[in-house]
Fold this sequence. Notes:
This protein has 118 residues and is mainly alpha-helical. The chain has helices at 23-36, 42-54, 56-63, 66-70, 99-102.
Amino acid sequence: MSTAETSRFVRLRVELVLEVADEKAVTGAALRRIADDAGMPAEERAHAESAAAEDTAEALAQLVDPLGLVGEVPGVELRQASWSGERIDYDPDSPEWDLDEEDGDAFCDEEDGAGRTG
C-alpha cells in the first residue's frame, strides 16, 4: 500500500494496572478536578461526583487525561478517546498478565541495533 492509500488515523491501545495505596487521596483529587471543571454541565457534574465518591476506580478514571498523554507529541492531534476504570484481581506472576503475549508482535524482548527493545 502506498502512503497515499494508508489511513492517517492510528488507534493506540494502552492498558495500565495501578495499585491504589490511598483511596481517600484519589477520591479527593477526583472531586477537586470535577469541581474545577467549569465546562461540565451540572447534571454531568452531579453524576461524576456521585460515581467518584462511591468507587475509587471511577474516581481514578476522572483523573486520567488522554490529551495529557499525547498533547505534546509533535504532528498528532487527539480526535477521540474513551477510557474507564474497574477493580480487578491482579496477580503479577500469572501468565494472564504477561503483556508481551497479548499482541504477539506488538512487543519484542530482543534488542535492536540501537539497544532498544520493542
